[in-house]
Amino acid sequence: MAKKTKDSNLSIEERLEQALIPNWDEPYKLPDNWCWLKLLSAFENCTDSKKKIQQKDYLESGLWSVVDQGQSLVGGYTNDETMLYNGNLPVIIFGDHTRCVKYIDFNFAQGADGVKVLRPKSFYNPKFFFYALQNVDIPNLGYRRHFPLFDKFSIPLAPLEEQQRIVEHVESLFAKLDEAKEKAQEVVDGYESRKAAILHKAFSGELTKKWRKEKCMDFSKLDIPLIDICSKITDGFHNSPKPVEQGVPYIMAGDVQEDGINFNNGLYMDEKNHRELYNKAYPQKGDILMVNIGASTGRAALIDVDFEFSFKNCAILKLQKDKVNPKYVLYYLWSQKERLLKEVTQGGAQPFLSLKIIKNINIPVIEYIEQCEIVRILENLLLNEKTAAEAAEKVIEQIETMKKAILARAFRGELGTNDPSEESAVELLKEVLGGDVAVQTPAKKPTKRILIPSDIKELLSNIREEEIIKLLLKSAPQPVSIQAIMALSSKKFELMDALRSLEKKQLITKNESGEYSLTR
Questions:
Q1: Distance CA 357, CA 226 (A)
Q2: Distances (CA, A) of 424 to 30, 43, 113, 296, 335
Q3: Sequence-separated (6 or more) residues with CB below 8 Å from residue 388
Q4: CA distances for 312 relative to 50, 235, 266, 403, angstroms
Q5: What's the confidence (pLDDT) of residue 178?
Q6: What local confidence, expressed as pLDDT, does residue 154 receive?
Q7: Quick count: other Cβ atoms within 10 Å of Cβ 124?
Q8: What's the pLDDT band for 305 if we cut at 50, 70, 90?
Q9: Burial of 277 by CB count in 10 Å (0-12 exposed, 13-18 middle, 19+ buried)?
Q10: What is the Cα–Cα distance from 212 to 208, expressed in whole angstroms?
């Protein structure tokens, strides 16, 4: 017998066999009325390869959103109506390179390469599929494509009412977590502005105002060029010698952070080149390294080690420590970073702080004893702010972990929402898959026309609500099962929405057995 090659020629049983995961391949046990479906059987790929807007053509604002595979929901905008996705909504966007998953229920245009437009099949609540796809453990292949892996994965299918309950429960939990995440994010985002405000108070005299009053001191400062409080200001390598496998530590601009210098970057400089630099700059404990080129220009850190090292793209400030507290100067440079960066980035060129500019940075020199007091107060305040920001970052990480745990429980049927008495998802799948099979049926006898009373009809919003009301009128006074209602149309989610709407309007009620009746 010839093998059938077209889906339209397959029986319902053959279609089920194609869609379902065999028992021995199920990833884990699901509730008895759920089933495992092959991922590729769960959606239609509606990606249009001819309608992709390149990132260079994105607008900052426009009539329609461009959705791409980036982290943000919207990547940009377009005014080109011909590029709009013209299929049914909602759809799920999958980032082929990034693995980002987005729920899209608004008009949009596809972004550049890597966008997959997936429309869940009618046995899925689109939101349920959206969350279920996020729960699929797709390995990270870097920037390689991930969609070709879909044929290796499976996805749970639950009864329709259970899908809706899971969506509502997950979104309720997520809403609470998102509220907590938003507050934590505000702490993280506000860290730099709070730090800047503290530094401003320090160098305007406000931070030590009470202390000076107790010491009977006046606030007096003298702006002095940085070169006047340094024995030397010079820079690192210009000829960019290549790192070697062994030698002395070699520090790059990216290794200079405000919380210290990273000496464990695995880079080393040969003895000959190092000696040339060391004889010129001889960095020592208590000196300051300041990045003087690139995006990190102006960032500074205190040298707190005694061993020798080489450096590149940085300047070294060898302070006269009998005149100034090195940490006082360091914190002042922190407070000036944004101003300095702004001054040297005019015209779009790469930021560069020349030695001339650095030498002429004015430092507000005050009494040494007050410098030390400012350092003491600043260290406490900045530590508190940093601790709070780090704690907030951990909260954000924990929230993402909690969301993953909620989804894992949801798609194991462990949220406590499943009703074992509901018809199996396999029956739902069979009904939808069988809808495409041409079956010759005998002619139906004419049936009596059902008229909806005018007082009820004026409360109805759409044809699905009318279909349900007619079915209940025809069956009255006997209640109607959810299966009978779902058989009214292949548009299952429209029927579910209509049921909820009719219940809210108090036109129908649901009994303990899950059957529906008219209330009037």
A1: 10
A2: 12, 20, 39, 59, 65
A3: 187, 191
A4: 48, 8, 15, 43
A5: 95
A6: 95
A7: 26
A8: very high
A9: buried
A10: 6
